[in-house]
Amino acid sequence: MIITEIFVPSFEKKYEFKLNENVPVAMVIDELVSIISQYERCELLGEGQTFVLLSSDKAQILSNVLTLFENDVKTGENLILI
User: Fold this and answer.
1) Residue-level pLDDT at 45
2) Can you tell me the distance from the alpha carbon of 69 to that of 43, in angstroms, rounded to the nearest whole number?
3) pTM reported for the whole predicted model
């Protein structure tokens, strides 16, 4: 498990998450969107809308098919969900 801070520009808020680094980023994104939607009581998903996870520390988009570990995401790294 890794602990990261995730910034969501649409809410202009940061959230701290403990994430499993051994699951594909696409699954992580789905979980993040679900949890944040519930927390904010607002639907983040739109028809045909897709989200990406970026590493603000490395200035790169994370591959959805790779795990967080394979994307070299470490504890304490700052991510952005857009």
Assistant:
1) 62
2) 29
3) 0.89
